[in-house]
Design brief:
Largest sheet: 4 strands, mixed
Number of helices: 1
Number of strands: 8
Pathway: Amino-acid biosynthesis; L-histidine biosynthesis; L-histidine from 5-phospho-alpha-D-ribose 1-diphosphate: step 2/9; Amino-acid biosynthesis; L-histidine biosynthesis; L-histidine from 5-phospho-alpha-D-ribose 1-diphosphate: step 3/9
Pfam families: PRA-CH (PF01502)
Strand order of the largest sheet: 2-1-6-5
CATH superfamily: Phosphoribosyl-AMP cyclohydrolase
Helix content: under 10%
Function: Catalyzes the hydrolysis of the adenine ring of phosphoribosyl-AMP.
Number of domains: 1
Catalytic activity: 1-(5-phospho-beta-D-ribosyl)-ATP + H2O = 1-(5-phospho-beta-D-ribosyl)-5'-AMP + diphosphate + H(+); 1-(5-phospho-beta-D-ribosyl)-5'-AMP + H2O = 1-(5-phospho-beta-D-ribosyl)-5-[(5-phospho-beta-D-ribosylamino)methylideneamino]imidazole-4-carboxamide
Radius of gyration: 15 Å
Strand content: 35-45%
CATH architecture: Roll
Mean pLDDT: 93
Family: Belongs to the PRA-CH family. In the N-terminal section; belongs to the PRA-CH family.
């Protein structure tokens, strides 16, 4: 299925043709990472059932886990009321963060600075 085939889904991309995607662990709701997707990334995600994103730093399509093996199997895709943000509910295989951590959100910001999140 592509975006064009889902008549009620009309994503509102930003001026760069992207929208933010929150990768959330299916079952627990834990936020694993945030990335960006363009129309092609969303279409590939819906078609293949694995998370695809647009890498802003590399300016290329990014199939999560293609090189690391840490694939995100997509259980479902949710959109917010404005259709300008997505949630990919995923079954994460291996760590989600490129640092090797389970989630990219492993640090806490406080008035004193940065510390390890508990």
């Amino acid at each position: 299925m592509t975006i064009e085939e889902t008549s009620a889904f009309t994503p509102r991309f930003n001026e760069a043709g992207l929208l933010p995607v929150v990768a959330q662990e299916a079952g627990t709701g834990r936020v694993l990472m945030v990335a960006w997707a363009n129309r092609e990334a969303i279409d590939l995600t819906l078609k293949k059932g694995e998370a695809h994103y647009w890498s802003r730093s590399r300016s290329e399509m990014w199939h999560k886990g293609a090189t690391s093996g840490n694939v995100q199997k997509v259980v479902r895709v949710l959109t917010d009321c404005d259709q300008d943000t997505l949630i990919y509910e995923v079954e994460q295989q291996g760590p989600a963060c490129h640092t090797g951590r389970e989630t990219c959100f492993y640090r806490e910001v406080t008035a004193e600075g940065l510390s390890a999140a508990t």
